[in-house]
Amino acid sequence: MADEKMVIGAGTNYPLNGKLSIPNERNGLIPGVILVHGSGPGNMDSKAGNTYLFKDLAEGLSEKGIAVLRYDKRTFVYGKEMKDDTRMSAKEETIEDAILAAELLRKDSRIDPNKVFIIGHSFGGMLAPRIDTEGGNFTGLILMAGSPRKFEEIMLSQNDDLLDSLNWFLKMIARKQIASLSAKFENIYSLTDEEAKATKVLGKYVRAYYFKEMGEHPSSNYLRNLDKPVLILQGEKDVQARVEEDFESYKKILVDKRNATFKLYPNLNHLFMPSIYGNILKAQKEYKVAQNVDKQVINDISDWIHSIA
Fold first, then answer.
1. Is the dihedral of CA 39, 44, 47, 51 positive or negative?
2. What is the pLDDT of residue 267?
3. Which is catalytic among the residues 21, 122, 275, 302?
4. In whole angstroms, what is the distance from residue 165 CA to residue 139 CA?
5. Is 37 a catalytic residue?
6. Distance of alpha carbon 28 from the chain centroid
7. Any catalytic annotation for residue 238?
8. DSSP 93-116
9. Same domain for 116 and 235?
10. What gap in Å lies between CA 34 and CA 11, rounded to an integer?
11. Quick check: is 180 catalytic?
């Protein structure tokens, strides 16, 4: 395997450093994959504590004859410049760069332009069907620990999980904060775009428009219209995406789709690594333990990609 330096969006206002992991042995054109980050700023390796989800996927899949393109997330590199932009949405944060990355792969003479896939993790998994529709034009989609729910619903349910693990005094304080946040979210779809851009919902910078724009493009709508292969993966001990609300909901949405494959992994967490604590309060502590993506996950993704003619 060789890592080649790449630039996604060269010539745009937001060029991003990336790496293309290319298999050493190639017989003819090979399949290619782009990796799309979860929420928040992330580097090209998707570093969280002492774990490197995207680096593991790139190394594992390239050993199995698949080229993998990963890159720094726009907010990781340009977060300071972007934080005051009231128009910021998932489009500017993630979607545009993913489409540029897919175009870059298709232009590579070593890669089969008819076998370019997307792997979206978490937030990236939520967006993958929209990225595909808005210009990604992938051969197939792999959604890792994604969700068909709205982003604000996931945030509120994670807050509820945190609430359950607090003592009575902290619970009392947190309950008021969650109720306040919930009230803000309830109102966002009645706002005009301009009102939403002027309304802060989280901290100093996150505006209602970010959630409104994303909520008006629900993943479930894109999935119902999907007529290409999709692979849905989740760890059973994931404390950030839920088996019942997310993995099982994907099954219901895609129930009539013969092109959908589902894999649930016992004892794996949100990063598809062995679960240690199984507690959302200890997620950051868990990620400080150096671990790697479970080999079975890499094998399953590789087998699925190679099975698609």
1. positive
2. 97
3. 122
4. 42
5. no
6. 30
7. yes
8. IIIHHHHHHHHHHHH-TTEEEEEE
9. yes
10. 20
11. no
What is the rounded CA–CA span in Å between residue 283 and residue 129?
27
Question: Phi/psi of residue 166, each to 5°?
Answer: -95, 160
Does 212 fall in a domain? no
Can you give the CATH number for the domain in which 52 is found? 3.40.50.1820
Please give the pLDDT value at position 127.
97
Higher pLDDT, 237 or 202: 237
Q: Does residue 267 share a domain with residue 165?
A: no
pLDDT confidence bin for 33, thresholds 50/70/90: very high
Given the residues 270, 275, 294, 302, the one annotated as active site: 270
- Cα 297 vs. chain centroid, distance in angstroms? 16
Q: How far apart are CA 55 and CA 84, in angstroms?
A: 31
- Amino acid letter at 247? F
Residue 80: which domain range? 2-148+218-307
SS3 call for 150: coil
Question: At which residue do the structure tokens 């076998």 appear?
Answer: 115
| The one catalytic residue among 56, 97, 108, 238 | 238
- The CA-CA-CA angle for residues 30, 57, 44, to 5°, reads 100
Radius of gyration from C-alpha coordinates of the chain: 19
In tens, the pLDDT along 135-194 reads: 999 999 999 999 999 988 887 776 555 555 555 555 555 566 656 667 777 788 999 999
Give the number of domains in the chain. Answer: 2
